[in-house]
Amino acid sequence: MILERIHSKLERTNATLINHVVFWVGLCFVLLGFFIKPIDWRNVFISVGCSLVASSVASFLTSKYLVRISRVKKIVEYWGLESIYPTRQEMNQSTDNAFIGMESNLDIIAWGLKSFRDAKDSLIKTKVQSGLKIRIIAPHPDSVYVAQREHDEKEVHGQIRQTILHLGSWVDELKSMSPDAANVQIKYYNSLPEDFYFRVDDYIFIGPYRYGISSQQTISYEFKGPSNGFRDYSEYFEKLWNDSAFCTVDCNQEAI
């Protein structure tokens, strides 16, 4: 990646240098044309000079546009950024399409998932019965950070805690419906909030939690695998999931 940046910078520098040379050569031709007495040669110098100046200006503007397009293309291809959504509500259409085609994996980092459970309960149960594997990382319901989030979102005290407890009950229900109970798991953590995270097979939807703003009204991002953005976030999830010092599988255990 560093070599690509250096190479790209050298290309931009060379293109700018050539444009400057062509511009000044053209300008010199134009100025010389005014001092040449034979009118035929004067017209030739001025015409050639004007053409060089015009072409250098057009090339400069075009190169700036193309360089920007190239940078955007590299960002999209390298990181796999599919879309940016002003709110998670606006992201729902894309997640709906991803859920319909979902076959093997659903990994989640979130709070109580109340809206998600209300909207996708039937679909998720059908997928689980077909062997879908689900892993959820949620804040421990008794974590001080849950109480703080309730304050930040101006929610009624205990409301988010209750949704997390309901989430645990929902997971137990899914376990009973799965051909293998190990396919559906939930773990709890007690630390500062993690980003909202959904991995649906080869798609990742992610976004922050912001002070004073409900999660559904927060900017969110979509990444498509395989890409570096997809790999970065999915590897981070695996790191959290396998870190016993970070999360526990027992909701009844005291918040770690």
Describe the protein.
The protein has 256 residues and is α+β, with helices and mostly antiparallel strands. The protein folds into 2 domains: 2-79; 81-248, Endonuclease, Chain A. The chain is 57% helix and 16% strand. The protein is built from 7 helices and 8 strands. It has helices spanning 2-35, 39-79, 88-100, 114-129, 144-152, 159-177, 228-241, and strands spanning 81-85, 105-109, 133-139, 184-189, 196-200, 203-207, 220-224, 247-248. It has an 8-stranded mixed beta sheet with strand order 1-7-6-5-2-3-4-8, with helices on both faces. β2, α4 (114-129) and β3 form a beta-alpha-beta unit. Residues 1-7 have low confidence and may be disordered.
- Sheet-strand content, in percent, reads 15-25%
Which segments are poorly predicted (pLDDT under 50) over 5 or more consecutive residues? 1-7
* Rg, alpha carbons: 29 Å
The fourth-level CATH homologous superfamily of the largest domain is Endonuclease Chain A
Q: Overall 3D geometry?
A: elongated
CATH topology of the largest domain: the name is Endonuclease, Chain A
Cα distance spanning the termini: 39 Å
Subunit organisation of the chains: single chain
Task: Determine the fraction of residues in helical runs and give it as a percent range.
Answer: 55-70%
Strand tally: 8
Question: What is the overall number of helices?
Answer: 7
Q: Return the average pLDDT rounded to an integer.
A: 82
CATH architecture of the largest domain: 2-Layer Sandwich
Question: How many structural domains?
Answer: 2
The largest sheet has its strands arranged as: 1-7-6-5-2-3-4-8
By helix and strand content, what is the structural category?
A: alpha+beta
Q: What is the top-level CATH class of the largest domain?
A: Alpha Beta
User: Strand-and-helix sequence, N→C?
Assistant: HHEHEHEHHEEEEHE
Largest sheet features: 8 strands, mixed
